[in-house]
Amino acid sequence: MLGTSLPTLNGKLSEIYEPNVPHPSQRLDLLTDAHKAGIATFVAIAPVFPEVGYAGMLKVFQAVKAAKPMTIFMEPVNLRLGIAERIAERAKEIGVEMDMTVYDGGPAWAQYAIQSLRDAERAAEATGQFARLHLWPDYEALGSKKVVTAQENPEAYLKWLRSYWNRVSEWPGKTKEK
Q1: Environment class of 158 (CB within 10 Å of its CB; exposed 0-12, middle 13-18, buried 19+)
Q2: What tens digit of pLDDT does each residue of 59-82 get?
Q3: What distance in Å separates the CA atoms of residue 2 and residue 4, rounded to the nearest whole number?
Q4: What is the maximum alpha-carbon separation in the chain?
Q5: Which DSSP category does 170 fall into?
Q6: Buried/exposed 77-103: b ≥16 CB within 10 Å, e otherwise
Q7: What are the tens digits of pLDDT across the range 26-57?
Q8: Residue 69, by phi and psi: left (phi above 0), alpha (psi -120 to 50) or beta?
Q9: Which of 41-45, 94-98, 106-110, 156-160 is predicted with the least confidence, judged by mean pLDDT?
Q10: Most buried of 5, 44, 166, 168, CB within 10 angstroms?
Q11: In contact, 128 and 96? CB cutoff 8 Å
C-alpha cells in the first residue's frame, strides 16, 4: 500500500506550509501511477491549510478520485510542536504576508478546524468518496469542554467527533465493499 499527504493542489501554499516537500502535482502523479500499477493507495489530505477552503479541498478530492484511495484521511493544521511559529517564519523567509490569527489556539482555530472537517465531509460526499473518509479531529482541542459547550448542539457535536475518533480505516484485505 502506498500513500502520501496532499493537503492542497496549490503550489504556492505548499511552498509556505511544506518547504522541501515534492510539489502537489508530483504527489498526485505518484498516487495515480501507483493505482494504475495495481498498488493500493491512501491519501492524507492533511494538514488542510486555512487558505484552502471548501473549493480548494473539493479540487483535491476530485483529483485523488482517479487513484481510488482505500482511505482518505483529513486533518486541519495541528498546532502542536510549534507549527504556527514555523509557518510564520517560512512565510517571512519567502516574503509572504500571512494572517496568523487562526493559529492562536483559541476560538478562531476551533472554528477553522471544525469548518475544515465539515468541508471535507461535503467534498467527499460530492465526489462519491464519503465511505472512505476518515477525519482526524484533534481530541484535546476539539473535544475540550470549552469547544464542546460552544457548539449549537454539544451532544450531536460530540457524537460526530466520536464517530471519527472510533473509526477504523480500510486497508488491503480488511475492506468490505459497499
Answers
A1: middle
A2: 999 999 999 999 999 999 988 878
A3: 7
A4: 48
A5: -
A6: bebeeeebeebeebbeeeeeeeeeebb
A7: 999 999 999 999 999 999 999 999 999 999 99
A8: beta
A9: 94-98
A10: 44
A11: no
> Of the spans 95-99, 103-107, 139-143, 151-155, which averages the highest pLDDT?
151-155
HSE (side-chain half, CA atoms, 13 Å) at 74? 31
Q: How many CB atoms lie within 10 A of CB 177?
A: 4
Residue spans per domain, the chain: 2-165
3-state secondary structure 27-79: HHHHHHHHHHCCCCEEEEEEEECCCCHHHHHHHHHHHHHHHCCCEEEEEECCC
Question: What angle do helix axes 53-64 and 107-126 make, rounded to 10 degrees?
Answer: 40
CATH of 2-165, picked from 2.40.50, 2.60.40, 3.80.30, 3.40.1350, is 3.80.30
